[in-house]
Amino acid sequence: MDQLFVNLKHWVVVLMPLSWQPLVSALISVAAIIAVFAALFALTTILERKGLGRIQNRYGPNRVGPFGVLQPVADGLKAMTKEDIVPRAADKVVHFIAPLVLVIPVFLALAVVPVGRNMVAVDLDGGVLFFFAVGAATELAVFMAGWSSRNKYSLLGAMRAIAQMISYEVPLILSAVTVIMIVGSLSTTKIVGAQAGFSGWLPNWFVLTPWGLAGFILFMIAAAAESNRSPFDLPEGESEIIAGYYIEYSGFKFALFFLGEYIGLFAVSGLAITLFLGGWRAPLPFLTWIPSYVWFFTKLFGLIALFIWVRGTLPRLRMDQLMNFAWKFMLPMALVNLLTAGVWHFMEPGFARWAVCLLLVLGPYIMLGRSLFVQRHLSKRTYRYAE
Amino acid sequence: MLGEGIIKGMGETARNFFGSYVKEERLTTVQYPEERLPQKEAARNFPFLLFDGKDPHAGLRCVACQICEKECPPQCIYIVKSKDRKPDYVGKPQFYPAVFDIDVSVCMSCQICVEVCPFEAIKMDTEFELSTTDRFGGLILNRAGLSKSNEYYQKIHPTEATEVDGRLAAEKAKAEAKAKADAEAKAKAAAAAKPAVPPKPAPVPELAK
Questions:
Q1: Rounded to whole angstroms, how far apart are CA atoms B166 and B160?
Q2: Is A341 exposed, middle or buried (0-12, 13-18, 19+ CB in 10 A)?
Q3: Do B21 and A54 touch (CB under 8 A)?
Q4: Which of A244, A283, A340, B150 is the most exposed place for a label (fewest CB within 10 A)?
C-alpha cells in the first residue's frame, strides 16, 4: 500500500521499450505532480474561503453545489471564459510571459520535494539548493508582471514584492541552513532519512529540538513573506495598491498568478515539512502502517490550515514594519539559530545540551523583542487631542 | 513578550471558527433568497398606481392630471390622457390614463410623484426584485403592471394606508352629504317654485364664500 503509486508507475514504465523508459518515467512524475497539486490548489481555495468565513462568523461560499463545494469549478470556468485584456501601453511579450515564468519555477521546485517513501520526482544531490534557486525565479516573474503592465500601482506592487522577497530570502535560507548543517547533505531524501526513527514516543524530527523549533518558526514566517501571504501581502495590498503587480491581468493569466502563488505556498510548505517535520514520516511509532504519502499530505494540510488561520487573524504590516522585522529580528535570530545548531552538534546528548540550546535561542528572542519594543516605540499608542 | 499578542489573536479567531459551528446565533448572515428579513414599514423604492375594489380599470384612482409627469425630476413617467371619462370614487366622471408608463431604470425613488398627487393615486411600492433579462422593455412598467389594489397598499404600509383611507372616506362622506343636501335643496326649491313665481337666484357670491 505504501508503495502503491511507485509500483504503479514502475508497472507502466516497464511496458515501454527500453529507450523510452526514462522519458516516460519523467512524464508520469510530472503529470502526477501537476494533477495532484493543481487539484490541491482548487481544494485549498474553497477551504480557505470557507475557513476565513467561519473565522469571521460567516458561512463562506455555499451556493454552487452542496455546501458550495463546486465553487472552484465555477471560479475556474469563469476565469477561462473571461476576456483577456492586455493594456495598450503594456510590453506585450513580457506581459504574456510573466505568469508562465511564475508558474513554471514553482512546479519545478515541487520536483525535489519527497511526498512519500521513494516518491520524489528528481532525487538531486543538491535538492535544497535547487529548490531555493528556482524559487528565486518567482521574484523575476513578479517584477516582469509589474513592470510590463505600465501601471503605477503594479509597478509599486512589484517594487514592494522585490524588496520583501529579497529581504525574506535571507532568513528563509539561513533557517534552512541549520538543517543542512546537522544532516550534512543538501539532498531532500537524505534530510528525511536523517529524521527517521523514534526516541521513546517522540519522533526524531528536527522541529522537536530547540534550534529546529526556532528554525521552523523562522522558516514559516519567511515562507509566508516569500509566497506573499497575509500578513505579508503588501505586494497585493488590495486596499492600498488595488491588486499590486497583477492589477492589469485578467482571465486565465490572473488565474495562473493565483495558481502560481498557491503552488509556491505548497512547495515551500512541502520543504518545511521535509526540513523540520520529518517529511513523510509518521509522528508516532504505532502509526507507521499508514502510507507515507498520506502523512505528507496530512502535514501539508496542517500547514495550509495554519497559513489560513494566520491570514484570518493578522492585519497587513506596514512597509517599514516589514523591513524592520526582516533585518532587525529575523536575520539576527536566524544567525543565532545557526550558532545554536552548531552548539547542538558538538555537545554531548543530554539535559545540558537542551538547556544550553534553549537558552541560546530564548535569550536573544526575549532581548530582541524588548529592544524592538523600546527603540521602535511599538508600545501602545497614545493620542493627544486639541483642547 | 514578543508574539504574545499574536497568540492571543489566534486564540480569538480559533474561538470564532469553532464557535460558528456550535452556536447558531453567531452566524448572523441572512441567506437572502431563501430567508429574508421582514420589510420595514417605511421602505420604499418605485411608485405604483392604486385602485379601489376588485377591477383595476374601474377602480383606478388616477385621473391623468399629469402633475406627477411634470414634477418627476428624472422624467421617468409617461402618461396619455383618455378621450372618454369614467366615474371616480365619489361618482364624478373623470379622465383616466390610457397609457401610464414608468421607466424604473430612470426612476430615482424620490417620492415626489407621491407628494404632489392630489388624488392619492400613486404610492411607493416595496417590491425590489425587478431584475429582468430585457433591459429595454423589461424595465418599463405599464399601467397593468403598475396597478395594485388598496388591500396591497394596506399590507405594505398599514399606517399610511389607514390614514389615506380615512381621509378619502371623510371626503366621500362630505361629498355625499353635499350631494344629498343639494338634492334636498333642489327638491325644496322645485317644490317652492311650483306655487310661487320662480325665486331669485340664490346669493351666489355669499355661498361661494
A1: 10
A2: buried
A3: yes
A4: A283
Longest pairwise C-alpha distance within chain A: 88
Cell of A26: 519523467
**Residue environment code for A229-247, b if the CB has 16+ CB neighbours within 10 A, otherwise e:** bbbbbbbbbeeebebbbbb
* A177 neighbors A245 (Cβ within 8 angstroms): no
Question: Taken in order A285, A288, A289, A295, is the CA torsion positive or negative?
Answer: positive
What pTM value is reported for the model?
0.78
Min CA distance, A231 vs chain B (Å)? 11
Select the residue of B3, B9, B20 nearest A57 (Cβ to Cβ).
B20
Residue contact B3–A51, C-beta within 8 A: no
ipTM summary value = 0.74
Distance from CA of B1 to the nearest CA of A (A): 7
Grid cell at residue B196:
310661487
Tens-of-pLDDT digits for all 387 residues of chain A?
777 777 887 788 888 788 888 888 888 888 888 899 989 998 999 999 999 988 988 888 888 878 888 888 888 888 888 888 888 888 888 888 888 888 998 888 888 888 888 888 888 888 899 999 888 888 888 888 888 888 888 888 888 888 888 889 999 999 999 999 888 888 888 888 888 878 878 888 888 888 889 999 999 999 998 888 888 887 777 777 777 788 888 888 888 888 888 999 999 999 999 999 888 888 887 887 888 888 889 999 999 999 999 998 988 888 888 888 888 888 999 999 999 988 888 888 888 888 888 888 888 888 888 877 665 556 677 788 877
